[in-house]
Amino acid sequence: MKIKDHLDKGTKRALNDIGKRNKEKLSTKELEELMGVNRDRYERRGGAVRRK
């Protein structure tokens, strides 16, 4: 049995409404910022931690 078989109609409707509400379009720049693409990267060199 699947989880959806155990839910009542009201709960299913509420979950579907949540999914429809979060349809916000983000720009490429905003997505990259969220993923942390432009952050500094650090690595170990000779025991010291240096920015790459």
Task: Describe this entry's structure for a reader.
The N and C termini lie far apart (51 Å). This protein is elongated. The protein has 3 helices and 2 strands; from the N terminus they run H-H-H-E-E. 48% of the residues lie in helices and 15% in strands. By secondary structure, the protein is of the alpha+beta class. A two-stranded antiparallel sheet has the order 1-2.
Number of domains: 1
Low-confidence stretches: none
Please give the alpha-carbon distance between the first and last residues: 51 Å
Number of strands: 2
The ordered string of helix (H) and strand (E) elements is HHHEE
Mass-distribution shape: elongated
Helix content: 40-55%
* Alpha-beta classification: alpha+beta
Rg on CA atoms, Å: 22 Å
Largest sheet: 2 strands, antiparallel
Report the total helices: 3
* Neighbour order of strands in the largest sheet: 1-2
SSE blueprint and pairings:
Elements: H1 3-6, H2 9-21, H3 28-35, E1 42-45, E2 48-51
Descriptive tags:
alpha+beta, two-stranded antiparallel sheet, 3 helices, elongated
Please summarize what this structure is.
This protein has 52 residues and is of the alpha+beta class.
